[in-house]
Amino acid sequence: ALAGTLAGLYNARRRARVVDVDVPIAGLPADLDGFTIVQISDIHVGPTIKKRYVQAIVDAVNEQLPDMIAITGDVVDGSVEHLSEQASPLGQLHAPYGVYLVTGNHEYYSGAAPWVAEFRRMGLRVLMNEHAVIYPSGLPVVVAGVTDYGAGAFDPQQRSNPLAALSGAPADALPRILLAHQPRSAAAAEPLGYTLQLSGHTHGGQFFPWGFFVRFQQPYTAGLHRLGRMWIYVSRGTGYWGPPKRLGAPSEITRLRLRAASR
């Protein structure tokens, strides 16, 4: 028990490692082959995760020179008043095609409206049931984002809506990327024509045996999965929640590369 606790503490407190994932996209234009997205998720800035920890994550992300950065929710555990300085390094993230963020359930526990305003003040693009269109190599790519799956319980006007997030998007855009904190958003997203959903929330279980219980709430625990025509990637998270412990579910900074595929 002592050995497991110490290993879990070490795994939680060390900087998340960079994980490489190739996502095969049927029909992807050759000029977009190799387009790189770095995803971070579930940092949980709060009682034990402070500015120094966040700065190490930001430095590691920027070192990857991504085309785009995605932050898939649960950034904070506390108010803007108490944590804005600790989360401030996130404003240093940069990528030529933008840094995008969606809310997670913990943003709603912590006061979503002031945090959304603070993230925007940092220069992050917060997507709340809306999308942006970017043009790498002159080709349209949709980056959409939804509010947390349970946001409607806090504010009915912020109910998660993958359909609204895609409204008005160019019909010829490929890929269509959706940022959604919880993997269970995938069931509503796939019929709408999304190509790839990036999620977090699960922490990969964080430590044994919680990974088994995640499956009662979420369709996927971690990694790359296929639902119909859509890929879903679920990050194990870049920080941790609760006790500083990770065992059998290492934290990650995910570098996703889009690859052209025949089918």
Can you tell me about this structure?
The chain is of the alpha/beta class and 263 residues long. Helix content is 24%, strand content 24%. The chain has 8 helices and 12 strands. The longest helix is centred in the first third of the chain and has 13 residues. The radius of gyration is 17 Å and the shape is globular. It starts with a helix and ends with a strand.
Quickly describe the structure:
With 263 residues, the protein is an alpha/beta fold.
Low-confidence stretches: none
Largest sheet: 6 strands, mixed
Using only C-alpha atoms, the radius of gyration works out to 17 Å
Helix/strand-derived class? alpha/beta
Tally of strands: 12
Strand order of the largest sheet: 1-12-2-3-4-5
Describe the global form: globular
Q: How much helix, percentage-wise, in residues?
A: 10-25%
Continuous helix count: 8
The CA-CA distance between the termini, in Å, is: 47 Å
Topology:
Blueprint: H1 2-13, E1 17-26, E2 36-40, H2 51-63, E3 68-72, H3 80-87, E4 99-102, H4 105-110, H5 112-122, E5 125-126, E6 130-134, E7 141-145, H6 162-166, E8 176-179, H7 186-189, E9 196-199, H8 210-214, E10 223-227, E11 230-234, E12 252-261
Parallel strand pairs: 1-12, 2-3, 3-4, 4-5, 7-8, 8-9, 9-11
Antiparallel strand pairs: 2-12, 6-7, 10-11
